[in-house]
Amino acid sequence: MYLKSLHLRHFRNYLDQRVDFSAPKTILVGNNAQGKSNLLEAVELLATLRSHRAGRDRDLVLEGETIGQVAALLERDTGPIDLTLTLRSNGRRTVALNSEPLRRQLDFLGVLNAVEFSSLDLDLVRGGPEKRRAWLDALLTQLEPIYAHILQQYNHILRQRNALLKQRQQRTPEASLFSPPPEPTEAIDEPGTLELWNTQLAAAGSRVIRRRARVLERLAPLAEKWHQEISGSTEVLQVRYAPNVVLTEDDPAQVQQAFLDKIQQRAIAEQHQGTTLVGPHRDEVEFTINQTPARQYGSQGQQRTLVLALKLAELKLIEEVVGEPPLLLLDDVLAELDLNRQNQLLDAIQDRFQTLITTTHLGSFDAQWLNSSQILAVRAGR
Ligand code: ATP
Ligand code: MG
Questions:
Q1: Comparing C-alpha atoms, which of 241, 222, 250, 39 is closest to residue 137?
Q2: Are residues 334 and 315 in the same domain?
């Protein structure tokens, strides 16, 4: 797929700016705080309806305005598509394809595919398990948009179940000495209520687990192969899904039963802690290099190689599943790679993956990159 143009209106520090992309690689160059990352963020929003930076939509809309818009013209194998995302400071969003408003935001996902790689992605290796879950969930959302709905359902059930556990915890005699009496508005808690939530949690949770397991099964060999190629040495990467409920086979009934069994095992601990201890919200994705956890392993360079391998694997996997190469968004990372890794990346993307790159200076780029790129200067949202 090819992003032909982007139009930002009242988005971040952009008042009204149209950008035409005229080469497979575009370098956005400018000083700090000029709007380079904002532009990539706009593309990320069109791809996933999420931004890894913003919490609230009011931060995305130009300060002092109540409404902002990101629009794009995308060329896909099936033909051109117009995407429009309208953001409001009150949080209400609307999306449209080819000027037709969509009733469900779900239908907007998966139209534009993009892989983003920024220096924040080092958190994938260094950060807590929630970073890896969020990464995996975002990838799944692009590959199978329905996953966004499944995950939402799971999180909804999880919140309800947690509220119930908390409520019960506060009613136990030793807890009531220290905690305020339960709120009068709390949910009705009858015998059997928890069991109902257990069944729902296991049903929704096992759908999440099975999809995550399946996608990692496809991604892992790609990442491992890239890692070998980039590190060019005897370092062996292993990517492994470590679900909280152990999966022995990809069978819905089996996974649900294992889930329910685990809930039984942890029942007393859950009562005590007043929160759900079993389920995909506590899963881990493990990265090991020569059998040592990558988080503890070695240098920044090695961690960067690992993230680069993961990103290249994502590109490939999306291309395989979607049938078209996704966009690659490189936010400030290229200058951090040594020339050898820069070249490996260049070889990997060729002109197949349209790439948007931000940088504060062109000096660190290989002539090959500069000669084959469209170069745009970004200054104060223009
Ligand atoms: P760096 O090189 O430091 O990464 P950058 O060019 O990537 O810089 P961006 O993050 O794209 O910078 O833009 C940051 C600028 O956008 C800041 O000046 C910030 O104040 C401004 N900005 C962010 N959100 C809004 C908003 N809602 N309204 C107006 N300006 C905003
Ligand atoms: Mg930036």
A1: 241
A2: no
